[in-house]
Amino acid sequence: MxxxxxxxxxxxxxxxxxxxxxxxxxxxxRMKDCSDCELRAAIRRAKTVCAAHICQLIINDYWRVAIxxxxxxxxxxxxxxxxxxxxxxxxxxxxxxxxxxxxxxxETALKAEPDYVALGPVWPTILKKMxxxxxxxxxxxxxxxxxxSLPLVAIGGINTxxxxxxxxxxxDSAAVVTDITLSADPEGRAxxxxxxxxxxx
Length: 201
What we know:
There is one protein chain. This protein has an 8-stranded parallel beta barrel with strand order 1-2-3-4-5-6-7-8, surrounded by 4 helices. By secondary structure, the protein is of the alpha/beta class. The protein is built from 10 helices and 8 strands.
C-alpha cells in the first residue's frame, strides 16, 4: 500500500471541507470529546467531501463508529489498540494505521499487522503533552529498517522546512496538524505542503 506523502490531520469536518478541495489526498479526522451524534455527522460530511475529491479518509480511534459508518480506514493509538477488536476491524474491510513511540510499542503494533506505522514525535510538538522525548530523524531510519516495506508515517513538529529530512530518513508520509491549522493562512500552507511533497508522490 502507498500513502500520499502529505498526511493532513484535522479535528473537524469543517477543516476537511476547507482543505481537501485544494488537492489533499490523505486526511485523518481526529475528534476528541464529542458526542456520538456529532462524530457521525462529521464523518458523513467528511466522507462526502473526500469521495468527491478522491481523498483517503482515516478515522482516528472510533473504530466501531468507523465500521458502522462504512469507512475504510482507522488509526489507533496504543491504548485504543489494546482494547480494539482487530478481527472485527479486519472483517469489516478496514485498513489499520497504528501509532508507536518506542520499541515495545512497535513490537505490539506489528503483531496486529497494520497497514502503516506512525512514529512520533519526531520533533517537539505543541499539539499535546508527550511522555516521550523527541525521537529525531535517526529513529525514523531505524524504524524503517525494522518495518521494511510497511509504510512509515512521521509525526510531530513537522513543517515544510523539515520535509526533505523526513523523507531522506525513510518516512513514506509526513503527518501535519498545527503547521496548517495554526497558520495565518491555512489554505496557503496546505497548498505549499502539496507542492513541496509533489516529488515524493
